[in-house]
Amino acid sequence: MPYSSKLLDYFENPRCAGELPDANAVAEVANPVCGDVMKLWLKVEGNRILNARFKTQGCSAAIATSSYATEMIIGMDLAQARAVTREEIAEALAAFGKLRFAFQRSKRTAAAPLSFRV
Q1: How far apart are CA 86 and CA 95, in angstroms?
Q2: pTM across the whole model
Q3: Are 58 and 38 spatial neighbours (Cβ–Cβ below 8 Å)?
Q4: For the chain, which residues make up each domain, given as ranges?
Q5: 58 phi-psi bin (left φ>0, alpha ψ -120 to 50, beta other)
Q6: Strands, sheet with 37-45, edge to edge from the N-terminal-most edge strand
Q7: Most exposed residue of 4, 8, 53, 83, measured as fewest CB within 10 angstroms of its CB?
Q8: Using one digit for the tens of pLDDT, what is the confidence trace for 40-81?
Q9: Do 105 and 33 touch, CB atoms closer than 8 A?
Q10: Which of 28, 34, 51 is nearest to 117 (CA)?
Q11: Which of 60, 64, 57, 59 is closest to 16 using CA atoms?
Q12: CA 40 – CA 112 distance, rounded (Å)
């Protein structure tokens, strides 16, 4: 089953890509199954995420889910962001095929970097 048009849009036009120079929280996670790596930069004030940026090295699904997750958490408080699940991201992107299979075979996904400390 092919990727959804929404997932392909987030891959071809990633939102929030790049480093965040004034970040005060950074997380990095790697998927040991396929080798994807995501680095996430956050600007947090009080308990709220004011800004977020990412860099991902990996497949189209990894880049799209990183883009979506990063965009999604801006404006959330830290507890809300930590509660985001890989299933929520996959469902929001209507992601099927390879992405769903990757989620089933690995515990490390785009939601994993949200386990950060400020």
Answers
A1: 11
A2: 0.77
A3: yes
A4: 5-114
A5: left
A6: 25-30, 37-45, 48-57
A7: 83
A8: 999 999 999 999 999 999 988 889 999 999 999 999 999 999
A9: yes
A10: 28
A11: 64
A12: 11
User: Going by C-beta distance under 8 Å and a sequence separation of 6 or more, which residues neighbour residue 65?
Assistant: 7, 10, 86, 89, 90, 93, 95, 99, 109, 110
Point out the least confidently predicted range of 5-9, 75-79, 88-92, 108-112.
Answer: 108-112
| Nearest of 10, 15, 9, 26 to residue 118 by alpha carbon | 26
What is the C-alpha separation between 113 and 110, in angstroms, rounded?
Answer: 7
SS (H, E, C) the chain: CCCCHHHHHHHHCCCCECCCCCCCEEEEEECCCCCCEEEEEEEEECCEEEEEEEEEECCHHHHHHHHHHHHHHCCCEHHHHHCCCHHHHHHHCCCCCHHHHHHHHCCCCCCHHHCCCC
